[in-house]
Predict the structure.
Amino acid sequence: MYLWLLPLRGFSINASVTSSTEDRKSKTVILMEKGKMYLHLNMFSEKIPIMVVMKAMGMESDQEVVQMVGRDPRYSAVLLPSIELFLYSANKEAYVSEVLSPPMGDNDRVWSLSFFRDFNDWGLAASYSLLQFIQIRIPRGDGCDRLRWGLNGSGKFDIRSFFVDVYASAVWDRLGHARLPQTLPRQGIGLVRRRFQQIECANKGIFTKQQALEYLDPKAKRTYASASEKGALPVLRDMFLANVPVRQGSFRAKCIYVAVMLRRVIDAFLNKDTMDDKDYVGNKRLELSGQLISLLFEDLFKTMIDNVKKKMDEIMGKPSRSSRFDPAPYLCGDSITNGLERTLSTGNFNVKRFRMDRKGMTQVLARLSFIAAMGHMTRISPQFEKSRKVSGPRALQPSQWGMLCPCDTPEGEACGLVKNLALMTHVTTDEEEGPLISLAK
């Protein structure tokens, strides 16, 4: 997972995760745009608010999301615009549902307001100030008043009464859990007892996991959806963070991973020094020849199996068969060999499942001397365009010390881009995740 600072209409922070499994390869991006968090995935037709994604994965409580990201009050303050993304529109309405008489029998009345908001996300002082302000300013009468309210950019309420213009200044001072006591101090309000409804994403009608999935279903591209499963659920399960498995239908691991991404985005927003550097060697991965050959072999093998399966389905689907079916003749024995030889001879690396189409992947080894052969075998060729006149990727990084040779680089447009491994560099192989996970537990 890497954090980049991209100049998109100013600066936009995003956390990017490239996932690669045996079946699929995807790239998940969580970006921060105008103070709000969105998910960008090519399986969706548009960017999705991250809180809707969390609800679709079963985490319906905003408070749980905030606590999973971190207990630092700054995290909740940064996440507040994302939570409010669907909660407020320009002209929402709230009604004074009834007028309660205080138990002491005086003339002060208490207005019971039906706000579309869970109280545990309100600041107690801000809520009390708002109710007190409304009680003082609204004129007395037998009929119920009608309010129009909204939230401006500074986090303050603008309330317009049916009788008189009321402008409140109730700042959302915190997002933590706050319990409303049965009695509040008597300062013109009297006895206040309220039950706030927990409705999130109110103007979109997204309150539960099912409603979030129904909201995402039209936005999921049909190119991935299979005949048996359609909609957003298979996209969230298989393509969204494909490296994190879903076991027994539980998206808990994906929710934790998203919370980690959100925390890193917020840390980068609060402190630009925590931003990742694209040129840092620790943020790079080398595609070795063995990995590429194994990927090509896997693609050729599965392509052969799919061709045999299609032929078998075609023959077995006939209403009458005169002879016993034998799949052996349809197994093309040299298809894998021909595919490997074609790739090594032409240098065109083509993997259909991952849509990888690269040119010039193979070269003739130069054996002019031992040093020349060693330097050719340890050469690193980047995917960066050599014609671009950018100094950042070409510059010498301190993190290259001991791993990349600072001198062995060609001249011309490839200077600084084509590098060589140092003589003492040790390349490790992949390890299985199972033993590491069991050791961590």
